Amino acid sequence: MIARKSLSGLNKWILTVLIISWFFSTGAAFEFSQLQWDNGISGTLKGDEIISYMGYSVKVVNFNAPVESDKYKEVPVEPVEGYVGLNISKNGTLINETMLGLGESFITPDGEFKVMAIEFPSSSGKEWLYESYNPWVKLELNQRGKPHFDLLIDTQDEYFSAPNTEIPVNVVLKNTGTADIQNVDMDIGTELPILRGNLKFHFGNIKKGSQVSETLTFSSPIITELKSYDISANVSGFDVKDISYKSVMLKTIFIAPSPQQLPSLKKSSGAKMYLKDTTMVSLSFKNDLNYELKNVSITDYIPKGFKQISNNSLHWLINVPPNGEWYFRYILKPMEADNDGLLYPAAKAEFEIKNEYYMIQSNRPETVVYGPRIELSKQADVQEIDPYGTLTVTVIAVNNGSIPSKVTIKDNLPANVTLVNGTTMKEDYLEANKKTRFSYTIRSDSDKPVRLPAANADYYELGDSGTKIITRSQELLIRIKPPPTPEPTPPLVIEMPLNSTEAGNAQPEKYSKDNNAILNLLLDCNEIKGHDIRINTTSDVCSFVLSTISVPGITVTSPNGGESWARGTTQTIRWTYSGTPGSRVKIELLKIGVANRINSSTPVGSSGIGSYSWRTNSSQTLGTDYKVRVTSTNNSAYTDTSNNNFTISAPGIKVTSPNGGENWARGTTHSIRWTYSGTPGSYVKIELLKGRVLNRTINSSTSAGSSGSGIFKWLINSTQTLGSDYKVRVTSTTNLAYTDTSNNNFTIGI
């Protein structure tokens, strides 16, 4: 054991001398102690086993010789200091033989590979005994660590050309390798003028895992068209073996001409007013260009619920000097209260810049009109009465405004009725959001339908002062009940032979019932199968009766529930009829059961089908609780009402995409979508806004769509300015009141 150990020490000494001699002979320029290593791999091996890593193979050749065990314990007589003999090969070629003890390592002469013995069995382990000899070693293999450059040039992708535009650039150099790098040089190259900082840098050492950064500032050149500029970073350095490492990074930025400042159109008015007051609306158009704008067309619009005091046209054709401004003011008078706040329509200005058409819109100021708003309704306790019968009428006034007013309500009676009790007039001081009512009873003086005219109410613009405002309720039509049903006809006798299988011996059998039994028979026809003892007939009777009898009446088919009709549009009311309803019908619009006349007399139709083209009033109250009733003018028993409610909505256009939050890349195609109701016309104009200012017209005239929706495929210009403050506006080309803009901003990116 001792002799073997001494021999091992001698071999190590000889090997060390050989390695040192080799280094001196090759004139190595680095020290092994300067080398850094990667994380490598490790493995536990026994005799003749091999472990490989990165083209290198290590084979276990031998261990210490086995030893005798203690006479009383299963341990070596003396502690064993383990060692292992290794053959080291590269790409299958043996390059070295070595022996390693615990913690000892071998490095290849070129310094590229290291193997270390990091663990053996315990010095008193039974693995060293003759009777249980099974030694092993845990080896760790490492490749020489090498540096690696990661470069980043951080700056925006696009800038505008202007005298004071600065372009900051941050260059970050990181060593992401497994060894330090020394004598690093970094050169920055670009055509951009340097404003602050240096273009050349030197770093003595950049440790593995660390980074350095440098900031430079360039100035923007003055250009007239979009141009690209490259910013490059070239880096070189050396490792401990004086091996060179290089890296190059290129960043391309775009510089665009300074954006042209478009003229602006502004509109202002008072934020609040009373119904009795007037308000002044101010318009201003500012030309921010350095040359005159000629033939600028400006148009404004009166908001709903206002009237213009003067007779001035709200259309102007003007010339505006360089950096000049145009002003105009006019006066409006509110006609109704609006305590929720009224949004003025936007004014528009149309002009040309360098032969390119532009259209911009003003802001939309908001004003609150404080005042009363009395709404009058009239209702009867019944819809039809007996000839010369009585009914009770109730008139209700509601103040839906924001301030109180003195109200005088008068109702008028037609000539063919008599007041039985109650009063047809009332005065009250009606507070905001309050209501007042009165009722009276009348008697019809004839057997004809009774038409009750609208009730009238007048009230003041402010309390009990100011101009009087007149409002009216709807009319009412009270129908006369039809005469009673005639007496039943004599009993019906049906004689039918029995089923043919019994016809030879059968006698005719009589079956008699009143008319109700006949109707019951009709209702039960679907249940009759073959022969029926009750009537002594077959199901052929049902077929005959059902084919020759129909129930007279009128049936409303449209609107019949769920429709949405825009006010100000023309819609078709449809119905079917059977029997003899007469030549004409009356059509009524119902809201919560209260009737408004649509047409008091229109043809009933032909061949059992009728229709009427109805243009809804542009000021019709919006709601989801409307129905239509169609009634014969000759026989009020012929009548029908929509089964369910339909909606009367406001006409308009609504942009649905982009509507905020989208990120669309320039050079790609996307769908602009919108919905509409009413009659926007056949074509719409699509505009792109940036920062609420018109950026460009996407399409000056494209199809408005069909069935209430439209779509336009937009290829975004590859040079479109980047930004996150874009919106899209869609406007009818024939009716500018039909317009809408994206609710929120969307982004145009790369």
Report what the structure shows.
The protein has 750 residues and is mainly beta. It has seven domains: 2-143, Tick-borne Encephalitis virus Glycoprotein, domain 1 (Sandwich); 149-256, Sandwich (Immunoglobulin-like), CATH 2.60.40; 264-370, Sandwich (Immunoglobulin-like); 374-480, Immunoglobulin-like (Sandwich); 492-548, no CATH class; 553-649, Immunoglobulin-like; 652-749, Sandwich (Immunoglobulin-like). Helix content is 6%, strand content 52%. It has three helices and 59 strands. Strands 43, 45, 46, 48, 49 and 50 form a six-stranded mixed beta sheet that branches. Strands 52, 54, 55, 57, 58 and 59 form a six-stranded mixed beta sheet that branches. The protein is elongated, with a radius of gyration of 50 Å.
List the helices and strands and how they pair.
Blueprint: H1 2-26, E1 41-45, E2 50-53, E3 56-63, E4 83-90, E5 93-101, E6 105-107, E7 113-119, E8 137-143, E9 149-154, E10 158-160, E11 166-175, E12 181-190, E13 194-196, E14 200-206, E15 211-219, E16 227-238, E17 244-256, E18 264-268, E19 272-274, E20 279-286, E21 293-299, E22 306-308, E23 315-320, E24 325-334, E25 338-343, E26 348-353, E27 356-361, E28 366-370, E29 374-380, E30 384-385, E31 390-399, E32 405-410, E33 417-422, E34 425-430, E35 435-444, E36 450-452, E37 456-462, E38 465-472, E39 476-480, E40 492-496, E41 509-513, H2 515-523, H3 540-548, E42 553-558, E43 564-566, E44 570-578, E45 584-591, E46 594-603, E47 609-615, E48 623-632, E49 639-641, E50 646-649, E51 652-657, E52 663-665, E53 669-677, E54 683-690, E55 693-703, E56 709-715, E57 723-732, E58 739-741, E59 746-749
Parallel strand pairs: 10-17, 19-28, 30-39, 43-50, 52-59
Antiparallel strand pairs: 1-8, 2-3, 3-4, 4-5, 6-7, 7-8, 9-11, 11-15, 12-14, 12-16, 13-15, 16-17, 18-20, 20-24, 21-23, 21-26, 22-24, 25-28, 26-27, 29-31, 31-35, 32-34, 32-37, 33-35, 36-39, 37-38, 40-41, 42-44, 44-47, 45-46, 45-48, 48-49, 48-50, 51-53, 53-56, 54-55, 54-57, 57-58, 57-59
